[in-house]
Design a protein that fits this description.
- The chain is an all-beta fold.
- The protein has a domain of about 325 residues: YVTN repeat-like/Quinoprotein amine dehydrogenase (Methylamine Dehydrogenase, Chain H), CATH 2.130.10.
- About 0% of the residues lie in helices and about 50% in strands.
- It is globular, with a radius of gyration of 26 Å.
- The N terminus is likely disordered.
């Protein structure tokens, strides 16, 4: 074990983000050499979850109601398919699929065969399950460059597929195994998030701009269908045909289209969850929807909306009518699935009898999206779409602790002795007082959201004073114009300044002589292409809110990240795979060195970080943990085996990286 005094050498960390190098003719000079001078230890998976965004409920071959659930995997663990018997409250099949980890909301049951179809959203792998079978059939990929983002079985059994990033409509013929590309539904829209057949037409709902299109297979043409309020600034999340009515769910509302007259006839307000239930078989004149956080009956003829006395604390993913064969509550119940832990809820409207099941599923380690050292020296780990919470590694006890309730943490910072962090998708900013016990809602207490101001991914935090933080953030889906937010963590007052650099996203910040020096990404929110060619380095005055300077530190770099000031007041950063030294007084790049030959870009650069110890810089890029000697300008690769991302150091000086997507690794000299 290394000497503890040496390991307690002070490390200084720059904000995680993107940076670009200044233009010029400075030579590139560095050499990469692997080294075995330290020990890399796998500490495990800080967060484990079961997330079932793809699901359906239907009667099995013997008439018993079954739930079909697809749970997320991770880059090293394939996704999961399970079948749950609702009456027996038992998981009767639970298997890993052949390939792919991410399975979005794209599961459908064929009306002609009863087969269950689903696909992967981190690729385009298609699967079929025949109820009663003991295995899932892998049918292969339906596209080389697209992801399956929506899937719906048509009236004749044809499988209709919406994709990302092309926003294409595909069809798959189960008889021939052939896939047909019908083209992009609407120009400029990268996602088709919902598909529904209506007679001879196929309706498609887009993301990130909520637009509706119909496709006529006979003519091969798409026609945009104008929504009552025009295109909405949110996804169309679900399309449901109920009788002759098409329910279009988007944002916090559901529009109702009479497909026979072609007229919009109603809008259901305050909708949460995905779509409406099948028509009530008891009256053939009503459907159910979660509106105003309670379940309500919607009368399709009178358009009346009324609560039924059921207020489950969950948003429906998919609905069904089922007979649970419960003597205490006979007859049909309305059931739905919920994505967290595969939960299943049901309610009998006649008896008010309830049902709840959290089935036994495998689950998987959650992908980590950010790590950082807190003021207490512990390592905090934010996880992807994580309702369980975030992980905390205590280097003294050498143990993880789960801090529940945070969802997806995108960035961390320090405010005095407190930990501050930002959450996706609300762009929510929190302050956690480390000298008090963790209790979500109390400590951290009240938060402030930035999504109403067009921002949803807080990335980098820099303390400016005893009452003010600067926070960089990525804009909401489909938008350019990331922001710097000035935030008072004590009062939660915020000032949001977007488009600091026009059409770019500020993602990395340091404070130097009262000036915020930042780096950008050319990317905006997801679902929109960059409109600028290269990332910038800039200076921004937090008092006047004006740009003092801007420059391109490295031609063609897409991000500028890992900004950090050294003891000589020189700025260091990473521009894709180039490390650079910048003089903030003369505002020129003094040195730059290409670390590795292959591209090392990162969408927002938050996984490109630099730390400083003595005359060495430690960093991550291109999946490598490296050491850069500022004196000799030489690079040593410390590890290239785990796909290292992000970087943090504990109070003893040990380094931590995310590896294998879900695991925390410690590197010790």
């Amino acid at each position: 074990m290394n000497d503890i005094t040496d390991r307690r050498s002070i490390l200084r960390a720059g904000g995680a983000g993107l940076v670009a190098l200044a233009a010029g003719s400075l030579p590139l000079s560095a050499s990469a050499e692997p080294t075995a001078g330290g020990t890399l230890t796998d500490l495990g998976e800080p967060v484990h979850k079961t997330q079932t965004q793809s699901s359906a409920i239907a009667n099995g071959p013997d008439g018993r109601p079954l739930a079909y659930l697809c749970a997320e995997g991770n880059p090293t663990t394939p996704g999961e398919f399970a079948v749950v018997d609702l009456r027996a409250r038992k998981t009767i099949l639970d298997v890993r699929i052949a390939a792919g980890a991410s399975i979005g909301r794209n599961l459908s049951i064929s009306p002609t065969t009863g087969d269950v179809w689903f696909g992967t959203s981190d690729g385009a792998e298609l699967y079929r399950y025949t109820p009663g079978a003991t295995a899932v059939e892998h049918l292969g990929s339906v596209s080389e460059d697209q992801r399956i983002w929506a899937l719906r079985a048509g009236d004749d059994g044809t499988i209709w597929i919406g994709t990302y990033p092309g926003g294409l409509l595909l069809s798959y013929d189960p008889e021939t195994g052939e896939t047909t590309d019908h083209g992009q539904a609407l120009a400029g829209e990268q996602y088709i998030g919902s598909v529904q057949q209506v007679g001879g037409l196929i309706y498609c709902g887009t993301q990130p701009n909520g637009r509706l299109a119909s496709y006529d297979p006979a003519t091969g043409t798409f026609t945009e269908v104008a929504l009552p309020d025009g295109p909405v600034a949110s996804d169309i999340t679900e399309l449901n045909l109920r009788g002759s009515l098409l329910f279009v769910t988007t944002g916090a509302r559901t529009y109702v289209l009479d497909t026979e007259s072609g007229q919009w006839i109603d809008t259901i307000p305050e909708v949460s969850g995905y779509g409406v239930s099948p028509v009530d078989p008891r009256d053939d004149a009503s459907v159910y929807v979660r509106s105003g956080n309670v379940i309500k009956r919607y009368h399709t003829q009178t358009r009346a909306l009324e609560p039924i006395g059921w207020s489950p604390n969950a948003t429906p993913e998919t609905w069904a009518w089922v007979d649970l064969a419960d003597p205490a509550s006979p007859g049909l119940s309305i059931a739905f699935t919920y994505w967290n832990n595969g939960r299943i809820y049901a309610f009998n409207p006649d008896t008010s009898g309830g049902y709840y099941l959290e089935p036994d599923l495998l689950g998987a380690g959650t992908q980590l999206v950010a790590i950082a050292a807190g003021p207490d020296g512990a390592i905090y780990c934010g996880a992807y779409l994580s309702p369980p919470g975030m992980g905390r590694w205590d280097p003294d006890r050498e143990a993880f602790e789960l801090l529940t309730g945070t969802s997806q943490v995108e960035g961390f910072g320090t405010f005095g002795n407190d930990l501050v962090f930002g959450r996706y998708p609300q762009g929510r900013l929190y302050r956690y007082e480390l000298d008090r016990p963790w209790a979500m809602g109390t400590n951290p207490g009240p938060a402030v959201d930035l999504d109403g101001r067009g921002q949803n991914r807080p990335q980098c935090f820099v303390q400016l004073s005893e009452t003010r933080m600067a926070v960089t953030s990525v804009p909401i889906t489909g938008r350019h114009g990331g922001a710097i937010t000035l935030w008072d963590p004590l009062s939660n007052e915020v000032e949001v300044y977007d488009h600091v650099i026009r059409d770019q996203t500020p993602v990395s910040l340091v404070l130097h002589d009262g000036l915020l020096i930042g780096g950008t990404s050319i990317n905006g929110g997801y679902g929109i292409d960059p409109v600028t060619p290269e990332a910038k380095l800039f200076g921004w005055d937090p008092e006047t809110h004006k740009i003092i300077f801007e420059t391109v530190p490295v031609r063609g770099a897409t991000t500028v990240a890992g900004l950090i000031m050294d003891e000589h007041d020189r700025l260091w950063g990473l521009a894709d795979n180039v490390i650079f030294e910048f003089d903030p007084v003369r505002r020129v790049v003094r040195h730059r060195a290409r670390l590795f030959d292959e591209p090392g870009g990162s969408r927002y650069g938050n996984d490109h970080v630099l730390l400083l110890r003595d005359d060495r810089l430690y960093g991550v890029t291109a999946g490598r943990l490296f050491e850069f000697n500022r004196r000799t300008r030489r690079v040593e690769v410390l590890d290239d085996t785990v796909g290292a991302r992000h970087l943090a150091a504990d109070r003893a000086g040990d380094l931590y990286v995310i590896g294998q997507a879900t695991r925390l690794y410690r590197y010790r000299r």
